Amino acid sequence: AQQAGDLGLLYQSQWQQARLYSRMGRADDSLRAYRLAVQSLQPIKDRITDSRFRRRGPFPHSDGSIYLEFADQLLKSTDTLQGKTERQQRLVEARQTMEMQKEAELQDYFRDSCLTNAKANISVIDEAIGPRTAIIYPILLADRTELLVSFKDGIQRYVVDKSAQQVTEQVRALRTKLEKRRTRDYLPYSQRLYKWLIEPLEVDLHAREINTLVMVSGQSLRTIPLSVFHDGEQFLVNRYALATTPRLTLTHASPLKPK
């Protein structure tokens, strides 16, 4: 594959190596192989998208598995890192990997590489983060949920022992109950999701006097409003200004002119 310059074959073989190293417990080797696989994939993503538009064939990375697996390995590896700078770099890399997944997802949906051209004019949201704003980046994994929360002074990681399937089941149930406008049957589900996704952050939110939450809604969470989360006494929207965005790099972060 290297001699032929076949990046499609190369990234798939590197991805396979990464999974094998992970099974063998060779975490550092696995991370190196995942990095190589993603590097090999990035230059051909647009070509794969365009070719799928023409032939409607299988799209190897459309489910985001390679990115999700890589992010999973990166997050796990932070447990063994001692230095704060190293941990921050690893968390940023995990988040950037998930951004690649979201980009591939949108390109596949639109069958077009238009997002790549638009990115040049968009700033990263947390580069302009205010001192009283927190950006919540949930990552739903097979065995747990990771919450990467960006504050003005860096990223904090929170681990919740709820799988992607468990969170998705609650989200779907909440979505169904919300459509029954004359009942409050949705409350148990909104309270449960609050307990899983917001409660672990509360101490740090209070300590930093946070008044604005931005949720980067991905996977199943994009289908429900953040405002409906309930702490048992009041809704989240009663306590915070709320915003959602599909990606950190898909929205203009600069404030609008008052006029």
Quick tags:
259 residues, alpha/beta, globular
Description:
By secondary structure, the protein is of the alpha/beta class. It is built from nine helices and five strands. The chain has helices spanning 7-23, 27-41, 45-55, 65-77, 84-110, 114-118, 164-178, 187-197, 202-207, and strands at residues 133-140, 145-151, 154-160, 212-216, 241-245. A hairpin with a 2-residue loop joins strand 2 (145-151) and strand 3 (154-160). Helix 2 packs antiparallel against helix 4. The radius of gyration is 20 Å and the shape is globular. The termini are far apart. Residues 53-60 have low confidence and may be disordered.
Task: Summarize this entry quickly.
The chain is an alpha/beta fold. Helix content is 46%, strand content 12%.
Number of helices: 9
Q: In total, how many beta strands?
A: 5
Q: Numbering strands along the chain, what is their spatial order in the largest sheet?
A: 3-2-1-4-5
Distance between the termini: 57 Å
